[in-house]
Amino acid sequence: MNFKEKVMKTDHIYNGSIINVEKQTVELPNGQTATRDIVKHAKAVGALALTSNHKMIMETQWRAPIASTTLEIPAGKVDPRDSDSSDPSKHAMIRELNEETRYKAKKIEHLTGFYSTVGFSNEYMDLYLVTGLEPVSNELPRDKGEYLEIKEYSLDEALSLLHSGKIVDGKTIMAILYWQLMQNKG
After folding, report:
1. Shared-domain flag, residues 122 and 170
2. pLDDT at 145
3. What is the largest distance, in Å, between two alpha-carbon atoms of the chain?
4. Are residues 22 and 107 in the same domain?
5. What are the DSSP calls for 170-186, one per residue?
6. 15 vs 11: CA distance, rounded Å
7. What would the pLDDT profile of 83-102 be if each residue is shown by its tens digit?
8. Residue 161: in which H helix or E strand, if any?
9. Would you call 23 helix, strand, or coil by DSSP?
């Protein structure tokens, strides 16, 4: 079966600092038309950051779209500061780790990549395992308005927070379950 939709028209609705929104008119495989609201977002990165004492670094921060704080892995978007690198995603991961946790990693390993919300957004995130953490000597400034509380959690603590509903962020859930999978294989 042919699933491909043909974009007939694109209306640019909003261009912002983090997202752009467009409305597409598409022709469906059966010849009918429909509309699609699309959120365009820069590529993103996230870190399963493990300390030498086998704890995961997570941060609490306010998230305006849900009007609540969340407990999340360190993450951020790939931006122009990363474009001169041969691997912009890895460069963004190094930068975000510094900005948010004040650590640098001796080892950075790409684990997987995924689309965060395929129903309306093109945001793609690379998930990294970062280990061999040590404090940075030169702290990069945090993003304007970014207030974070950084804590460390064991795998059992992270799973308990997940199962109790205190962790609701998809990338963080994926990182915890990936960590659990790595432990079960080892």
Report:
1. yes
2. 82
3. 60
4. no
5. HHHHHHHHHHHHHHHH-
6. 11
7. 888 999 999 999 999 999 99
8. helix 155-163
9. strand
